[in-house]
## 1
Amino acid sequence: MKIKHPINLHKALTLFAILGLMTFYQNFSVTAWVYLSLHGSYGILWLFKDRIYPDKSWEEEIPVMMGIVTFGLLMLYWVAPFILISQNIEAFPALIAVVIAINLLGVFLHYSSDAQKYYTLKYHSGLITEGFFARCRNTNYLGEILIYGSFALLTQHWLPFVILGLFISLVFVPNMLKKDKSLARYPEFETYKQLSGLIFPKLFLNQSENKIISQEN
């Protein structure tokens, strides 16, 4: 079994899990439909991404038991729709608009930066220091955080934010630091590290960092 198999299964089942919750609790409110649309389409897009430009890190072979545990942990992402639908939570229109905007930005950053990474490395190995990665070393993770943050915001409950925080601290950040350690083998990495943020884009540079850019140009 590859690590992507439980991940892909979770993404594929998310749409049906949310529909099942809506049917069970007979909650077909606008907020529930919006949540279904956002989270369900995110899972479908993930499957398209895996088919068109897969992430090599998800190709690692793992024991079946680890795959089961992985799927179980990913089910924590279904806590948000469970709370929203079972408690019949309604979001006011302005909040729905904000949630959709955050979600769209997250989807754009996540899938577009993954596409840049895949096709750049396919034809040229080495550091990627332009485009989506010019000021942020993990734009794809930033996009994913925005996506799940939008789900939590729509739910209007503290627990989905806690779950997202756990994934960020226990999965996302360790993977980012592991990636930094791997990229450190490139001589130009230290310079790139000064000019980019780990998670959030480094939009404002100090005098020494601006000097580095001037020297490069």
Note: The chain has one domain: 4-216.
## 2
Amino acid sequence: MSLIRPLRGLRPKVEFATEVVAPPYDVLNTDEARQRVAGRPYSFLHISKPEIDLPVGTDPFDASVYQKGAENLARLVSEEILIRENKPVYYAYRHDMNGHEQAGLVAVASVKDYDSNRIRKHEYTRPEKEDDRVNQIDALNAQTGPVFLTYRQDNTVDGIVNQVMEQTPLYDLTADDGVQHTIWVVDDENDIDTLTTTFEAMNCLYIADGHHRSAAASRVAALRNKGKKTSGDKNHDYFLTVIFPDNQMMILDYNRVIKDLNGLADDEFLKQCAENFEIQTSEQKVKPEKPTVFGMYLDKQWYRLTIKDKLIPKDDPVGRLDVSLLQNNLITPILAIDDPRRDKRIDFVGGIRGLGELEKRVDSGEMQVAFALHATLLSDLMAVADAEEVMPPKSTWFEPKLADGLISHVLD
């Protein structure tokens, strides 16, 4: 049993790829998905969000939804919109968002290595979201949403991927969000063997995005192996991934907006902030230029906050994160928000929306103060995962997002 292996991908015929490709299931709500599929009977949203094909108001977690997804998948297979690769292969996958390119490998990764933490995690999962993915995988008998993995860059992998990308691609398309997705088949047996053995020699892989999908894949494998003698080499013992080298990854900032100042007037709030931060006013929006620096927007004024050095726990991989420094030295002690996962007074804004979104949320009166953070470093994410620790909620925002529908992994 190897860390990764090739797969017989279930994928669109080339002529249907643009009609099939869809955003990840969790970036659109049901109403947005209904609008997106208008006039698009082959959109993968019919499989990943099948409540759109049931009466309005249907509970998206009802058993009928998963059954509808299975029916829709079977329809696209029977109509030969989706076809199965005739032998196991890898795929090179490059996406380009506004000039930022990442080139990685589509593969299936070992559930056993996930369970043993060789495929390392950095987030808690929520049981209800895990249950949803378990039900979806089980109903479809397939994994349709790839888990986003990363690894420490390797020249051998780069060489094969770059060589493959000189060939004619299988797909080269631009999705609705403007991200270009290009995929090549890696079917040379020597390349396949080299990739498999090179990854097998690696110490570990890291989950960037997709903790619920990987946890669900583990649960499905355990259910299907229950009471059986298994070598761990069935399709359900592996889960669908796209694996990118760490030197190509892009993490964006994940910012905070808060409804009130915990009963404090602006001047008293600033005074308390000054106990832990050096504060400067700014005539421009403050996008932090390095870790330990924060932008703050309050009453139409931007401030630059720099955490005092003595407050940075240098040897604590979680405590030294910017999200932790802000939470532990301002949001909790001054604003009395102890649990950012559940407290309704705090919300989170992905960096892709820009600092203007922070101003908009505050100027509208919906929120009273906003904080702009420096993006979490991938090296810090790896350090947390290596320590078997967990990052605070909403620590990372990865872009570009992987598309759904281009490659799926069938479990039989």
Note: The chain has 13 helices and 21 strands.
